[in-house]
Amino acid sequence: MKKTVRTQVLLCAGGSCISSGTPSVREAFETALDKHGLNDEIEVITTGCMGMCEIGPIVVIYPEGVFYQKVKPGDVEEIVAEHLLKGRVVERLFYRKPSSQELIQTINDIDFFKLQHKIALRNCGQIDPEQIREYIAMDGYAALGKVLTEMTPAAVVAEVKASGLRGRGGAGFPTGLKWAAAASYPSEIKYVVCNADEGDPGAFMDRSILEGDPHSVLEAMAICGFAVGARQGYIYVRAEYPLAIERLEKAIAQARELGMLGTDIFGSGFDFDIEIRMGAGAFVCGEETALMHSIEGRRGEPRPKPPFPAQKGLFDRPTVLNNVETFANIPHIILAGSQAFAALGTEKSKGTKVFALAGDVNNTGLVEVPMGISLGTIIYDIGGGIPGDKKFKAVQIGGPSGGCIPTAYLNTPVTYESLPELGAIMGSGGLVVMNEDTCMVDLARYFLEFIAEESCGKCTPCRVGTRIMLELVTKICEGRGEMADLTRLEELADYVRQASLCGLGQTAPNPVLSTLRYFRDEYIAHIRDHRCEAGVCASMMYAPCTNACPAGVNVPAYMALVAQGRYEDALRVHLKANPLPSVCGRVCPQWCIKKCRRADLEGPLAVRLVKRFMSDQRQNYDDLYPEKAPDNGRRVAVVGSGPAGLTAAYYLTLMGYRVTVFDRQPEPGGMLRYAIPEYRLPREYVDKEIAGLVRLGVEIRTGVDVGIDVTLGGLRAEGYEAMFLACGSGQEIRPDIPGMELKGVYTGIDFLERVAKGEPIQMGPDVLVVGGGDSAIDASRVARRRGARTITILYRRTRSEMPTNPIEIREAELEGNTVEFLTNIGGIAARADGRLEVEVRKMRLGAFDKTGRRRPEEIPNAQDVRVVDNVIIAIGQRCDMGDLLRDGQGLVPNGWGGIQADIRTGTTDAPFIFAGGDLVSGAATVVEAISAGQIGARAIDQYLSPDAGRVYPWEHPEAPPAPAESDGEIETIAPVAQPLLSAAERLITLEVERTIRADEARCEAGRCLRCDYKG
Amino acid sequence: MTVDSIVKKHGNDREHLLSILHDIQSGSPDHSLHREAIEELSCLLDVPISDIVGTASFYTMFSLKPRGRHIIRLCESPPCYIAGEENILAALERKLGVVLGGTTADGLFTLEATSCLGACGVAPVMMVDDEVYGHLTEAKAVAIVERIAAAQG
Description:
Structural class of chain A: alpha/beta
CATH architecture of the largest domain in chain B: 3-Layer(aba) Sandwich
Structural class of chain B: alpha+beta
Shape of chain A: globular
Strand content of chain A: 15-25%
Oligomer: heterodimer
Strand content of chain B: 5-15%
Largest sheet of chain B: 4 strands, mixed
Radius of gyration of chain A: 33 Å
Strand order of the largest sheet of chain A: 9-10-8-7-11
CATH topology of the largest domain in chain B: Glutaredoxin
CATH class of the largest domain in chain B: Alpha Beta
Helix content of chain A: 25-40%
Shape of chain B: elongated
Order of helices and strands of chain B: HHHHEHHEEEH
CATH superfamily of the largest domain in chain B: Glutaredoxin
């Protein structure tokens, strides 16, 4: 006998959770409840999909709704003994909010669930799908009863029409119209067909509904049968969904047993029954005419329409064909009324839509939201954003018939009308989120391959057209493309779209067209530069790390050489692509390791630490530079001695030019000397590497302000045949707030430069720093070293939007600085005691900007006042090219005080003047500046010596020693420990990080998987 | 079950052809449709052999060639692809010593690709017979295969 159940344990038995171990967790619960004698008071219910597939198996304990994730059989005893017996929740199994790592206790407090509105999924995760009684307890079959006893068929059709429900399977055709059409054709025999051939890759809502709430579909089909005059229904399910088939079979049997299906349902005289038909692996069978052929036991080939199925469908009889999710909405519409349903959503897209979130997003799974919600809300608020510190790139919506939508459109409301404007479709609601590691050309190739394989072959445009499109895109991915291929692709796309027989072919070109629309540059980079920025297309990539490095440093080679203890050879390799290994060994943000394949094992290689060790092995590299060409007597001027200028001068000198570098500062190095603090980059290493360049033959003239002391025209008259402008972005952007002129207020660059020059700084104990970039963090850490005690960084967005390297933030926090997010400065005023009064405003995140970050907006009337000694404003930099622009050489300014130049070639509006670095790109990193220096050197060489036909040292990586033979098994090697000093130690030493030891360096370098090696 | 009894179970109308083929194939130890079975079916349904073969060959899940005792279906849909399906495939190919579509020499496994299994939330995913395995890593995929092989004794 069952006693009063005090607690219910809901255990998700959706397909994904089952694969993650639900059955053994259930067993463990049964055993544990038995052991503790709780069987009578606690009930374990296995439910359908709860939606959060990634973190399954999920257990929710009611009445409180306590939510446990990733529950293993081994966790169950603790849940039972602690939570169910003693009422103490098991915190370690709680869900953590991805953005803040905050622990969340109940299901209703998880954003993923909070922001949803469930209609089609109303019972999924709530009831045991194998018990018809549970469905009935949730008002199941009440809609069928209402229809059969209170409504006429015409009234049912009218109600569905009035709801505005549109087909959820892809095309979005109004469901009520379909029903009305089928009802209007007189026929003794009609059919209701449920399309459960959910083939769109990345969509799994239909599977979840069939597995989690099968009766809702059966009930809706019966309602439809009543409305249109059909007595027989078919559910066409993919064979890939065995669990769905099993649960449907059980559901049909139970419904028949209780008289919900069969003859004389509810004593109304209405007969209706349903059979299941299983597919056999053919994507095209999702197309309605193909599907009906398949039910008839034939090849699932589509046929032209009209006649539409409503007139002549299955076995040539009038047929209503709706998708699973569409049907699942019907009982709710009948019970709650069409008006309640139509109140949700937008004018033409009513109700809710289920989306399957998959790919590079924190919370993968199923979500149901009102139509019209923005893509950004789905991906960031419900989906929890992008995992790791990767950037969002695009979302593929609508499967192979859909398109991808890039960052700039995150505010787009999701409706049937808005998505086609962007080149996508609602489709069945698969949302595949992609981060920066996805190559859009490869993605287009992938979908074409899919379509070309799934094309049934009946019509030529689809069969042959998609195949030729696939060949063209494959050619581009393999580096054999030509620009004309893009036009050919577009022409073919148009042809396939217009001339194909069915929806599969008509929509097949969409992924190509949408990637061409938003990522044309990526296609062009593949064709023209043989470059796959995402590091996916293997043929145009030496190794993922080298591909990711702006300077193209041959990382695998110097790793291999360091591992063998051949440090000088390693340095030789490095110096081919980058003349500043000591500098980069200390400050490089390591683009390379974002693509390091070792990241999937113990973690990415500590490339920078190995580089640092390697460069510290030599006091000078005089004998290690690439071979220098004989002096050709031609003179080149470089303006600016930062990393871009130095790199250009280095390569031009190696090519035989006579190079003079001019700089307005008293000493060379630019930002390396005057902006990067000494605790990260002691000056001796800047001096060491610049001295090497001078010994190589680079002439450096400091204290010369080009534009004032000498003009570009004057330099040309002196005999400089070409010039490279790389004078950086050394000016801080000053916000328009009161008090910027007050004593004790600095801008970030000004502050760092004064410190670097040893100029007096008046630093009080309490300091506010404003900004979220490198210079804000640098300034905060320098302030501490200059005596400040309480340092607060104000940043107007949140941690995940901060542009600086997360490691830098962590280090600043470790040293005692605090970051206040969602705050901004309003104004500064002087106090009588000489201190500063600062108004701090509270911010919140608003809509998405073009870059995919949320725009901060002020919360009205939410501010407070702080009293501090200093304020350092470091909110961004710009260039100051005023004097050079007045020089009369025809240079054109750009938006941030720099000059317009082609970022790929360095060419400006003056033929003999080239430009690169921050001046052209905006503020960037040292290694990007080095890349700009390479570009400038190549451009000037090709300008001055068009026939030299030179191979530039950085362009063709030489093959390093072959890796040791391996049997494919990879040995686990612990990564090198971070050689950071403790917070206390570091404030009394110069550098915060030490150089790793030789044994550490060799071991770390030996972790390289040698992706370069194709042997 | 014999072909005859399978046809009796479903009925001998053309519309049951796919269901019948599914049953014949899953009842066959090598998961394929044998020539003799098709011939017998042709008589029972009064559908030409060419038509049955033409229909069966349209669908990727029917095989006219013998396959292994267990069918491994690795999902190739975008969420799985993004999650590293290619590496899993390589690991399985290495482990089994076959390329995609091949059957191991001992007849134990056939390695196939499948369209979306609808378990994208736990990508990458594969299905062995009717069982879905998610959150695959190279090591996990290999271990699953080893476990099944061991269970065969």
